[in-house]
Amino acid sequence: MQRFALLGAGFIGSVHARNLHLNKNIDFRVVYDVDGGRAQSIADEYGLTVAPTIDAVFDSGEIDAVLIASSTDMHAEHLRRAADAGVAALVEKPIDLDLVQATEVTRYVQASGIPAMVDFNRRFDRNHNELKRIIDGGEIGKVELIQMSGRGPSLPPLEYLRVSGGLMRDQTVHMFDLARWIVGTDPTHVFVTGSALSDAQVAEIGDIDTSVATLRFEDGTIAQIDSVRRTGYGYDERIEVMGSDGLVESGRQQVGAVSRYHGRHKTTDGLHEGWAQRVEATYATALDAFVNALETGSPLPNTLDDGLKAQAIAEAATRSLRTGQLEPIIYVQ
Amino acid sequence: MQRFALLGAGFIGSVHARNLHLNKNIDFRVVYDVDGGRAQSIADEYGLTVAPTIDAVFDSGEIDAVLIASSTDMHAEHLRRAADAGVAALVEKPIDLDLVQATEVTRYVQASGIPAMVDFNRRFDRNHNELKRIIDGGEIGKVELIQMSGRGPSLPPLEYLRVSGGLMRDQTVHMFDLARWIVGTDPTHVFVTGSALSDAQVAEIGDIDTSVATLRFEDGTIAQIDSVRRTGYGYDERIEVMGSDGLVESGRQQVGAVSRYHGRHKTTDGLHEGWAQRVEATYATALDAFVNALETGSPLPNTLDDGLKAQAIAEAATRSLRTGQLEPIIYVQ
Amino acid sequence: MQRFALLGAGFIGSVHARNLHLNKNIDFRVVYDVDGGRAQSIADEYGLTVAPTIDAVFDSGEIDAVLIASSTDMHAEHLRRAADAGVAALVEKPIDLDLVQATEVTRYVQASGIPAMVDFNRRFDRNHNELKRIIDGGEIGKVELIQMSGRGPSLPPLEYLRVSGGLMRDQTVHMFDLARWIVGTDPTHVFVTGSALSDAQVAEIGDIDTSVATLRFEDGTIAQIDSVRRTGYGYDERIEVMGSDGLVESGRQQVGAVSRYHGRHKTTDGLHEGWAQRVEATYATALDAFVNALETGSPLPNTLDDGLKAQAIAEAATRSLRTGQLEPIIYVQ
Amino acid sequence: MQRFALLGAGFIGSVHARNLHLNKNIDFRVVYDVDGGRAQSIADEYGLTVAPTIDAVFDSGEIDAVLIASSTDMHAEHLRRAADAGVAALVEKPIDLDLVQATEVTRYVQASGIPAMVDFNRRFDRNHNELKRIIDGGEIGKVELIQMSGRGPSLPPLEYLRVSGGLMRDQTVHMFDLARWIVGTDPTHVFVTGSALSDAQVAEIGDIDTSVATLRFEDGTIAQIDSVRRTGYGYDERIEVMGSDGLVESGRQQVGAVSRYHGRHKTTDGLHEGWAQRVEATYATALDAFVNALETGSPLPNTLDDGLKAQAIAEAATRSLRTGQLEPIIYVQ
């Protein structure tokens, strides 16, 4: 039984809170947020203690692990605190928007020896996982060509976009991680082109909302990733992997199985309204995998280094947007 | 090369004419219709001779086979003429609406020794054929439960319905034949219930437009068949067969592979507009199978006896509609 | 906040226990089972009191509602106890296998005035619900023809079958309820034929494992329902409703959205392993609807009378199996 | 009625021959091939005259149009002959592998005033056409992101690859044309990366068999195109277009509608065996569109200039493969 504290009680914090409560191997005890009212509300729902300060979380000595769902600019600080306290950490991506600082904190945490994992929750999606299992089982031979789409339903608020680090670092980074995970090696080069099509203000803040990225791997494998902020038709995520001996696809996920036939058309349920509905179950699965690793002492399913590598790809991708060239990806040591 | 005459130049005759023209093993020579103008129009299109009388078709001595697509009440007479002339015959169903007369002409034709086949074209549908191949290959074990739908898009003209023999003899008979073909034995009992829902005039002429039939086979296998005259959403035909070791389905056939995602729905192409569009290709395949049997001397894929048996089921089905009981099926000897 | 006791701590009881625990409007307090050890195990998991006797459940005065998941032969007795105690009741189907006794207890409960509902959980399936919403919204016009399949993956133990009341009363009864719910009126006649195909012992105990039922409604609407105990390919449930203006289908539900293309085939995820996996979510939804009705005082989504009517159809269906006739359905007053 | 000659009697010539024969507005008269035996074989099948020389085709004065299906290196010469003879021409792509020479012959033909069209047959695919109709009807708003796949089942013979001009000019050029057609404007830049993965000999001849291309349009629209020589699972072609108001897809086309459920999987028919099976119908439709334009004097559905533009994109794409940069596309004037 792992005793947990939750740092951050915003939207994603409340998703995590429910999963922390339901997990049978977790003793969910404490919640902290800079906004005490938000923390109290979650504490009331699940019978928790509200920590008045971040110090109070770690000084109690009654916590085995923290789930860091605080604002992005606090991730690095909270990781250091966990390392200092010898407490395991599951952190929302990114480690830090600045790759240099993300690297520094990663090395600091690694030196401390605490178990630490970035919450790349999409790796835990039921269908993506099945796709990975099929590939690893050799059913499609050697991976040769990947096609991935990650498309959100509507433009997030501009205030969010301004601090997001841009499309590559904020959204496509999930797909960069999945590409590494699927292929099993690190891509060496990336090319990206993008446009701001949904709203003129996106261009004004120097960002894009529609893009196509191409990754190259050492052995000639190629991955193509499109990212979109606003589809208008729901949350659209799809992975397709062609190998030397077949193709496997984790397809678009429709909400239901109801079909209608009228006149000349068949109409069925469409996609999930947003990413939250689509990937909801993955947070519980990722958390469960983290806790199982803690309980059994087995290796974590992913590490802070995975976080750094996905960020390194996002950096090169952002550079490619500017240069119009296939850019080498520079992984930090 | 088989020299063919076509008897009947109406709608279905014109479908056959095109297939007779395109088939490489057929020398399509003559067309006959009581309406000489209709015959001439087809003759002009394919470079044929118009036979002025039915005698002229058979007396010429230049014909190896006839395709009988004349009006239903002429089928028996034309079959006898073919038997007398020693010419092979492919006849549209039914042999005759009256089962006793159908039996008589069948025996007469069989005594003559000519090859004769009822054009149960649905057996030649690409997908139904594949379903049959899978079942015969043992992939789903022993057949236990069949579900079939045959649903037309709109009510045929009342003049047609008045002479059609009723829903069971006119439309469901195709499915009765398919059920025998799939199971490989003859059903022993049938129960049917039906309603007239699309138009009050259907009830007035003593017919129904919506029905569910249940067939029982000696070994306990059960088949369910629904028949509908008017769907409003196109032509809907579907066969599903459950066996002791799996299920196989020849599914609804959508016209195309175009999908649209808008808001909360996905919209795709619907079904074929009518049966003619849906089963068009089966006429050519059935004709080809008939000609191949003539050319090679191999057994015909189906015979007049198959026609009689499907009609016998339709007779018992019509009786069940009146009695509300599971009726035994009486096959003629 | 409704204070609940759970009666019955077997397999289905443990499913209910989890839902009682998670529901925010429920204060889950007490569990009772004739097997005290089973009750204790659930009590430990959710922090409950174990009631040593059935009296202890009702005498405490601290319970607003009971969920009756005890063995079928105890349902009637537990319903009477709830009525006597003035406590609301949600009861697993059937009320009682004997329709006369089921009617008596229903009238007794109704006289007491307590809210009481049969847990016809399939009405709460997300897709069936959407189908119902579409029909009620008039999108397919007047309902004319229904096709339903309910097929279990494997034969239940013979000990279970012996006390189940037979296929119609045990399994098809769910579909009889759904048919009434979809059409909005009560069927007047039923015809059924069935076979024992999966295991010779099924016939020995006088039961069947494969059947096709046909229901007729006053206005000519027809419903066809097939029921199977053993598919070999998972749990297969499907509802299709044709109306005067289109068709709506709550289709087969595949477990996932992973597809593979190899050689000449595409392979995708199949169906759920069993009914428990397929309908799991419906229990929580049904419970939620029950509690909401208690909290708001609004009408229950279904009542004991719905249970009686579905059972009355099952009785006539069982009779039809013997007579081979379309049987009138006799609803008790 | 247009009197036609067919130039070239190889594999694709024989496909065209059948369509020329079946088209009701075509009087198919003459066939020519450098290999007289091949020409004779087609002449025998359709009752044609074999032209002994190319001069004989054009000097007869009895021809209104030619279908040029000769070897690629003869296309330009045959186009010039048609222009000199004042005979309409439908030519297989490419006009000439050398873009400069293709441009010269295009200008020469245009100066002659004859109607001339490149046979970009994929524009005439039923589903791609429906996709185009939906987009042009404004149903998905402004086009923003396109994803296309064109993947062949197996590596063509190396002798063919050696003279093909490389993957971009030979195969991807079809998709470049479709991208222009869908968007309605010309892309300005292209980036491509590719690998030789199926066979070491592909790299030895300086070609690739797996690639991802990205196109940019003036208004920010982006298209992604992957091309593969060897899938191992059949011919895979797919187009997906996201607009500001929805998405439309011309999906993978499965051969049939047969499904099987066994154990934990559903298996359906896979894709067409090769491109010939998949796009067979498009040749007849394209030919029909060409003939209709000749008969009615309406504009041709596509022109030699469309051929030049698709080739210009392929040239820039081939350059990008070398430079690793987003390359400007230089359209000839």
UniProtKB/TrEMBL annotation, chains A, B, C, D:
Coiled coil: none annotated. The keyword Oxidoreductase applies. GO terms for cellular component: cytoplasm. GO terms for molecular function: nucleotide binding; oxidoreductase activity. InterPro entries: Gfo/Idh/MocA-like_OxRdtase_C, Gfo/Idh/MocA-like_OxRdtase_N, NAD(P)-bd_dom_sf. GO terms for biological process: NADPH regeneration. It holds the Pfam family GFO_IDH_MocA. This is Oxidoreductase.
